[in-house]
Amino acid sequence: MLATEYVKRKGGRRNDVSLFGQDSVPTARRFAQMHHAIFGVEANIGNDAVDPFLADLHPRLSADVIVAGPQFNDSDWHRNDEDVRWKYGTPPKGNANFAWVQHFIHHLSPTGTAGFVLANGSMSSNQSGEGEIRKAIIEADLVDCMVAMPGQLFYSTQIPVCLWFLTRDKRAKGYRDRRGETLFIDARKMGSLIDRVHRELTDADIQRLADTYHAWQGEPHLAGGKSTAATYEDIPGFCKSASQSQIAEHGHILTPGRYVGAEEVEDDGEPFEDKMRRLVGELGGQFEESSRLEESIRKNMQELGIRLSPTTEGR
Q1: Are 28 and 73 in contact (CB under 8 A)?
Q2: Number of domains composing the chain
Q3: Same domain, 179 and 284
Q4: What number of other Cβ atoms are within 10 A of residue 201's Cβ?
Q5: For 132-142, what is each residue's pLDDT tens digit?
Q6: Residue 200 has pLDDT above 70, yes or no
Q7: Which CATH number characterizes residue 139's domain?
Q8: Is the pLDDT of residue 2 over 80?
């Protein structure tokens, strides 16, 4: 189980973690119960399968870490306009994305962090007030990191998704002071196709993403008996640390591609004039080959008694 493995890596014990959650799908809830029993971890997932927007089973929960994968773009959800969770704006009835975001924020402790998966539209949509909600969350300095993921990662949908990382306090847990900053990572080119329609991130891909985020946070680690932090640098086309003013200039849109820019192209040392002559020569050769192939195709079709239309002939 990820939670217990995380605690063990941090030097803690399995019993140091308390798990809470709920699910509206009975099968999913029973699977979670079985999972907790197998790993010997106590967890409070309520007494029944209940929609968290109908009834929050843990109204006083203040979590240090929240990990979630809510249903994307859910249009069939139960909204209470007076819900205390809508601190940054009432989510639209036609999409629950920012209901989930605010549900997670509501349950974060003063130094808590949330990481969750959402559809890409959550980063840029301005429909039905979603842009204003996102703006309010950004101006509250809650957005720590945004990661654009490649498509085809899931068996249930091929749409690309994004990862949101929110935190209540960008100075907590011994990390550097990141107030007013957000890290953007564009991971759309990562992963490898395992079949025609499915992609997987390699262990190296996942490690690179984690190392980049931790280095930007200034997460301390022991090296030679001393506590040090890895050095972070912006990498064109991959990652960028942006200020709140820069995000405001982009209309409070959180799509990483807007910030990381284009990947640097390595200089091959060939002078521009020489490269242009070479490329023009290659293009001319390709035009000649295209004409030769077209003439050959016309001849073969005529031998088959097929006459091309005048429009095609005059092209």
Answers
A1: no
A2: 2
A3: no
A4: 17
A5: 999 999 999 99
A6: yes
A7: 3.40.50.150
A8: no
For the CA atoms of 132, 249, 216, 263, the dihedral, rounded to the nearest 10 degrees, stands at 120
- 244 and 289 housed in the same domain: no
Average pLDDT, the chain: 88
Q: 241 and 298, same structural domain?
A: no
Task: Tell me the per-residue pLDDT of 221-231, one tens digit each, with 9 for 90 and over.
Answer: 644 555 566 89
Q: Which strands, in side-by-side order, build the sheet including 63-68?
A: 63-68, 108-119, 161-167, 143-148, 181-186, 239-243
**CA gap 84, 178 in Å, rounded:** 28
pLDDT at 296: 87
243 lies in some domain: yes
**Same domain, yes or no: 174 and 281:** no
Distance CA 306, CA 315 (A): 17
Same domain, 138 and 173: yes
Average pLDDT over residues 216-221: 86
- Residue 249's domain comprises 51-260
At residue 265, what is the residue type? V
Higher pLDDT, 49 or 221: 49
Q: How much is the average pLDDT of 156-185?
A: 92
3-class SS string, the chain: CHHHHHHHHCCCCHHHCCEECCCCCHHHHHHHHHHHHHHCCCEECCCCCCCCCCCCCCCCCCEEEEEECCCCCCCCCCCCCCCCCCCCCCCCCCCCHHHHHHHHHHCEEEEEEEEEEEEHHHHCCCHHHHHHHHHHHHHCCCEEEEEECCCCCCCCCCCCEEEEEEECCCCCCCCCCCCCEEEEEECCCCCEECCCCCEECCHHHHHHHHHHHHHHHCCEEEECCEEEECCCCCECCCEEEEEHHHHHHCCCCCCCHHHHCCCCCCCCCCCHHHHHHHHHHHHHHHHHHHHHHHHHHHHHHHHCCCCCCHHHHCC
284 and 218 in a single domain? The answer is no
Exposed, middle or buried by CB within 10 Å (0-12, 13-18, 19+), for 247?
Answer: buried
